[in-house]
Amino acid sequence: MTAFISPEDYQEPVCPLCMDEHHPVPMDRVMKKLDAFLDRQDYEGARQYLCYWVEEAKLGNDLRGLFTLRNEQMGVYRKTGDGENALLCADEALDLIDRAQVSPSAACNALINAGTVYTAFSDARKANELFDRAEKTAVENPGIPGDVMAGLCNNHALALVKEERWDEADKTFSKAMELMGTQPFGAAEQAITLLNMADARQARYGVSAEKEIEELIEKAYLLLTGSSLPVNGHIAFVYDKCAPIFGYYGYFLYEKHLADKAKAYYSGLE
Question: Is residue 33 within 8 Å of 49, Cβ to Cβ?
Fold first, then answer.
């Protein structure tokens, strides 16, 4: 299902002869519309929408707007498996950190997003370099939100696993669990981390870690189903993302339950 861009979704195009003028993208409105695409998993619609506004940001000489849009494009391309474009957007977003003079929190987010892209597309070494930069940014700028730090730790741990830096990954996963426990509705993120930990245990120890893996799986399921999680697009995405992992480990009823919950949410948006 693709929702094409309608005239009310954009402003009058910027004159290409006025490149020296600054015409900022109406980011609040753009993000609200983008969230609607992502809520119903209309990634093609989101891709088209972001591509349109990227061109508007370029024409309007809006570097901060372009930075934000490139960050969002990273996520869309990563979810659709388009590694080439995801990496291009990651590199441009990183280049814009200084040029657009973004806040330390925004810079940290971009480094995390880019690191996640590099992990997804098989360059764990580069990913860990970016996560180290994000951590350095956070240390030098106290006040980075807790959810950003939790996301940093979880994604950094995944990249460490890819490089088989097991002990470092274990410590980083534990830190992610601690930080997520302080966040509203952090149970969903903790569940994802527990499943990532299960995968890491299997990769490191194989069948000898079966009992520990079972405990991690059970804890993750309880967090997803026993917590007062809101019914929204993000949680539905988490259910959809986690369901196949439960199936991989043989928990087929858990897989079906979560897949059904995600499907019920998305069906209500049609």
Answer: yes
In Å, how far are 36, 89, 113, 262 from 94, measured between CA atoms? 26, 9, 10, 33
In this predicted structure, what is the pLDDT of residue 270? 53
The domain locations on the chain are 24-91, 103-169, 184-270
3-state helix, strand, coil in the chain (%, to 5): 75, 0, 25
**Alpha carbon distance 95, 83 (integer Å):** 18
Determine contact, residues 100/57, Cβ cutoff 8 Å.
Answer: no
Each residue of 143-161: pLDDT tens digit?
A: 888 889 999 999 999 999 9
Residue 185: CB atoms within 10 A of its CB come to 15
Residue-wise pLDDT tens digits, 6-25 = 444 444 444 444 445 678 99
Largest CA distance in the chain: 67
- Rounded to two decimals, what is the model's pTM? 0.85
233 within 8 A of 265, measured Cβ to Cβ: yes
